[in-house]
Amino acid sequence: MKTLIGFMLCWLPLMGYAQEGRPWERYLNEVMTAEDAESAAWEEMYELLCDLEQHPLDINRVTREQLEQLPFLSAQQVEGIMEYIDRYGPLKSVGELAMVRALDYGQRQLLSYFIDVGEEPERGFPKLSTITKYGKGELTTTARVPFYERKGDKNGYLGYPYRHWLRCQFTYGDYVKFGLVGAQDAGEPFFAYRNKTGYDYYSPYLQLRQLGRIETLVVGNYRVSMGMGLVLNNGFSLGKVSMLQNLGRSTNGIRAHSSRAADYLCGAAATVNLGQHVTATALFSYRPMNATLNKDSTAATILTTGYHRTEAEMEKKNNLNVLTVGGSLHYRNGGLQVGMNAVHTQLSRALRPNTAVLYRQHYPQGSEFTNVSMDYRYVHPRIALNGETAIDKDGHVATINSVSLRLTDVLSVMALQRFYSFRYASLFAQSYSDGGRVQNESGVYVGVTWQPLPALHLSAYTDYAYFGWAKYQVSQSSYAWDNLVQATYTRQGWTFGGRYRLRMRQKDGDGQALDTYWEHRGRLSAEYATEEGFGGRAQLDGDFVQRARGVMLSGSLSYTKRWLRLNAGAGCFHTDGYDSRIYLYERAPLYTYSVSQFYGEGIRYWLMVRANIGKRLLLTAKIGTTDYFDRSVIGSSYQQIDASSQTDLDLQLRWKF
To answer: Which of 99, 114, 436, 506 could join 478 via S-S bond, C-beta 3.0 to 4.6 A?
Structure first.
């Protein structure tokens, strides 16, 4: 603790400097909770926003579905933008969005990173000669070099200790995008063992938009969002705080999968405009997946980690084939939309989880799964309604419904209700939940956002969830209660933030009754912004979880001048154990999401250099070290490091052509 106090006294005087990071990265940091930090959906979101920043949407050709990719826009704001363009024609500048009443200054600033104003919209799909002449290419390669040795590196892992990936992509506006991603984790074989073609993972993709009546066509790896996610959603679904930003809106659409995440479909999908306000989406996917097998060769669990480092992990690679077909039909007229969705999935091996464990008794079982749903949406400048109701092949029900009210220009409230039967089974459902599954949960979420002053933004939510069947570490029905209040104040370049979260959960105790676990988490942050290119931020995180305490003080500085950008950060942490762990978001190379968890006592520090070499090359290097004061061994099993510190070097080269 003395180290922490000393670090605080040294760091705070540096806050006389200026802005650190981009507003959209600060936005993710502000809305992230502890559970979100461990979710793969956030990595997918980060990579998408990085890609959109590098290849902004043309606001004069943008579709509703493209705007709905942005997590900070509500349904009313998306509708307001589309209505303004329809009424007044193409925008002359991004600043013209100030005329859209639903958008406040902060959201317009965030939006400016992902859109630009092109020339007059082209008529029809561009010619091949135009695409090849004016299209833009990009090759990005990234590698991580560890300055330590894991136990598995000595004996156990099939490959070398370096993690690396590449992405080659070609784009022409919003019309054409195609490319290839190759990636592998540390310890996986490269051009060896069963990876004879090089990387452990590949993702090829081709995406075409506005091809006559075909609104979107994707071939290769892709992702789909339907309704509110009760039937199929392998896009991304952010957490409870971001729910207050987009006010619980739903999304529909298909897009190419250009990231390293393992949650995707492989085949082809298309959305077609049938006229008379009707659109239809059809999809076909056939892909191998990883699974743990039972002795009778059925599948016990479907794995999504994507790791193939050891003999045991490699044996599980691609030992399950999954066929998925489905589609949706939607009618949209103004702010009203209604639709039907259906998905059928066929597994090459029957899914047989270990039902001797109580909480797994109603996990999805069998080799065929069919889910059908109806979804609806009504958007008005002051009110938005969203909902979806789904059934599986055995008639079990899941439903989710939300209403958001824009009471005034500065005050909005929303409520969300969900009921997921503990018998409802869907392999690809992903929607709002407290327990992380579209199954065995019912509850109500109520949130409010209020901007009493132009500089002050307040938000809060309360969420009650009831679980009718057993869960992991809970052998009977239980409930959870989650609450958060957050404030942000911005004035004359300064931004101050604060949040407090109170969460209650039930778990098995020593007797038959459930024990109640209380979790308190808080954060204070300060940031100053000017135009000179300097940057600075300080942040204090603390928690109190079932008599275990944790605290971390962190900060970062940046300097940008023409072709060079420097970033540095440090954090000192002290926690009583794993339950009171602290999460920290760091700047990282492009398309690289970096959130680390810390427990025990130690310090984290890092330095990143980003240099533009001419107009086409961008070189980034980041080195980071974590020193622990309370241990001589880090990690366990194959990941064990026989040292008290670990250092990693990230290298990235991007070439535009």
So the answer is: 506
